[in-house]
Amino acid sequence: MANSSPVSRSTLSLDDEALCRDLVTLRDYLRWAASEFHLAGLFHGHGTDSPWDEAVALTLGALHLPWNVDPAVLEARLLPMERARIVGLVRERVTSRRPLPYLLGESFFAGFPFDVDERVLIPRSPIAELIETGFAAWFPEEPPRRVLDLCTGSGCIGIATALYLPTCQVDLSDVSADALAVAKQNIQRHDVGVRVRAVLSDLFEGLAGQRYDLIVSNPPYVDARDLATMPAEYRHEPELALGAGADGLDIVRRILREARQYLTDHGVLIVEVGNSDRHLEAAFPEVPFLWLDFERGGQGVFVLTAEELDAHAASFA
Q1: For 244-273, what is the mean pLDDT?
Q2: For 151-276, where are the alpha helices, taking DSSP H only?
Q3: Which of 2, 127, 274, 288 could cross-link to 300 by cystine, CB 3.0-4.6 Å?
């Protein structure tokens, strides 16, 4: 008779009391959560990239511990309340497929924590790397004075920019009042209300008369095919912030057409389009999009200057 390997089964069939009784230390919960996430075949794309990383993020987040916690803490015994919280979070992550940042109510971007919930996308843009350098490639002598974070969502791009560049003024704009409510929470959380304001606006419509040295946008850009086949985790994010027509460029076309009148003469436009970059190149083959490379991964972020927008205005009309 051929040998057969044992079939791994989830322990989530046990009740919470049994799990909390048998799992005692932080190490126990890390190992257990990683095993359950592996068995469940979760999708990891909202700040982690493996079952182990997801388990670390969940357990440390549940216990309000930093990422660089002393490894000696792994042997710490957890209080019953702490055990119950971790078990509950693991169970919900597996059964509902809700992304972990929504379960914790927090996500990190460019090194800073931001409030998040289902009203906004979970921050994950590679634009964080540009923020961390102060956009120095385009502003080598002095930072931009006025910045617009267009389609802001949680406000992470604009607020992080304000935190890295303490002399700039930042506008956060979004068509969603629900998203702006979250952005306002984050303005208050980081105490930047003197320099950062939230504006309800359908792209540029609510920004008449404004001019910016830098416009940064992570707009909806998912094409219809990708939207229909996204993993279950993405179904918890607002579709308004993801889908943008058959080729993912409905919003980007408007940005390209309208952005120039809101930029200063030496201004810069930076836009993320993800894997709709191929559609953009096909739609505007004559436009010299500068596509950026990122050390930590990511694709589909282009840069155009005000001068380039002027030169190709006819293409965008």
Answers
A1: 94
A2: 156-164, 177-189, 224-228, 250-258
A3: 274
* Exposure letters 212-245 (e unless 16+ CB within 10 A, then b): bbbbbbbbbbbbeebbeebeebbeebbebbbbbb
The structure tokens 């998912």 sit at 222
User: What angle, 0 to 180 degrees and rounded to 10, lies between the N-to-C axes of helices 156-164 and 177-189?
Assistant: 30
Instruction: Provide the phi-psi class of 203: left if phi over 0, else alpha when psi is between -120 and 50, else beta.
Output: left
Task: Give the rounded distance of the alpha carbon of 300 from its chain centre.
Answer: 15
Report how far residue 43's alpha carbon sits from residue 26's, in angstroms, rounded to the nearest whole number.
24
Do the Cβ atoms of 254 and 245 come closer than 8 Å? no
Place of tokens 């914790």: 104
Residue 1 pLDDT grade (very low, low, confident, very high; cuts 50, 70, 90): very low
Calpha distance 33→51 (Å, rounded): 8
Distance from C-alpha of 96 to C-alpha of 258, rounded to nearest angstrom: 40
Tell me the average pLDDT across 114-122: 96
| One-letter identity of residue 228 | A
What is the phi/psi pair of residue 34, to 5°?
-60, -40
pLDDT in tens, 2-19: 555 555 789 999 999 999
Where in the chain does DSSP place strands (E)? 106-109, 112-115, 146-150, 169-174, 196-200, 212-217, 263-272, 290-291, 301-305
Rounded Cα gap, residues 268 and 259, in angstroms? 10
Question: What does the pLDDT look like over 26-53, one tens digit per residue?
Answer: 999 999 999 999 999 999 888 888 999 9
Of 296, 236, 252, 235, the closest CA to residue 109 belongs to: 296
Question: pLDDT exceeding 70 applies to what percent of the chain?
Answer: 98
In this prediction, residue 56 has a pLDDT band, given cuts at 50, 70 and 90, of very high
